[in-house]
Amino acid sequence: MNGPGERRTSAADALPPGARIVASVLPADLARLGEEVAALEEAGVDWIQFDVMDASFVPNLTFGPDVIAAARRHTSLPFEAQLMVSHPDVLIEPCIDAGCDRVIVHAESTHNLHRSLMRIGERGARAGVAVNPATPADAVVNVLDLVDLVLVMTVNPGFGGQAYLKSMEAKLRVARRLIAGAGRRIWLEVDGGIAPDTIETCAEAGADVFVTGSTLFHDPRGMAHAVQDLRARATAAMHDGVAEGAATRPT
Q1: In 8-146, where does DSSP find H-type helix?
Q2: Chain segment 122-140, per-residue pLDDT in tens
């Protein structure tokens, strides 16, 4: 078993260089969740995110490990759980047992972030850390050795379909510099309002993983078109960002 902080292989790692498109299932029809995740795989997303909300840390209540487990058999894509909850430690093991390859803990949700992230690694899953809009990027600097992903929220968490906060692009640039200093491969994920008119500036600022929900489910030309369009825009902008010195990414 890999130790905490060690990089674990996944299907996403085997893909060619470029942007990763992650589907949030918040807009999905939960009565047809198995069909929805299968359709997302067919459309070409790289992995699927489950936003686990408790109506305490955020003002919404969504789904938990049982729903994730029910969806697991309908796709081979990696799953990640973003724990938007007040007591993340309670849900770490159940989400891993339900089939999540990665569990993301919000830095604001616990006084023992280091311990929570270590627990994820000890269970053989990947750990991620998320920061809300009001939280500075350097809140994650002392746990970068434990994670393979940093998530910058570009909306206040709790509901899908919110307007993108452009001011978070400065935080993405800071997070990318912190990651570059860590000396190891860490994804920089962005979540909130990701659409064709926002993904390029996120990519230029340093993001390489893009979570989107409404854009995928509501594209009149279908999910596959949305995935291809977003990936092409982000990948091109990632190269532009590196060329301009805005975002140094490891190979």
Answers
A1: 33-43, 65-72, 89-97, 113-122
A2: 999 999 999 999 999 999 9
Number of other residues whose CB lies within 10 A of the CB of residue 59:
11
> Nearest 5°: CA angle at 26, between 21 and 27?
90
- Matching residue, tokens 């992650």: 22
Domain that holds residue 161: 19-243
CA distances (Å), 170 to each of 185, 194, 204, 220, in order?
Answer: 21, 16, 11, 32
Residue 5 lies in a domain: no
Task: Determine which helix (DSSP H) or strand (DSSP E) holds 84, and give its type and residue range.
Answer: strand 79-84
Assign residue 90 the CATH number of its domain.
Answer: 3.20.20.70
Residue 121 falls inside a structural domain: yes
Q: For residue 20, what are the CA distances in angstroms to 63, 230, 233?
A: 24, 9, 11
Note the pLDDT tens digit of each residue in 136-185: 999 999 999 999 999 999 999 877 778 899 999 999 999 999 999 999 99
Residue 242 has pLDDT above 70, yes or no: no
Active site residues: 51, 191
Query: What distances in angstroms separate CA 124 from CA 54, 100, 119, 127, one per listed residue?
Result: 25, 10, 9, 9
Q: What is the pTM of this model?
A: 0.90
* pLDDT for position 7: 41
| Number of Cβ atoms within 10 Å of the Cβ of 99 | 18
**Partner residues linked to 93 by β-bridges:** none
What's the total number of domains in the chain?
1
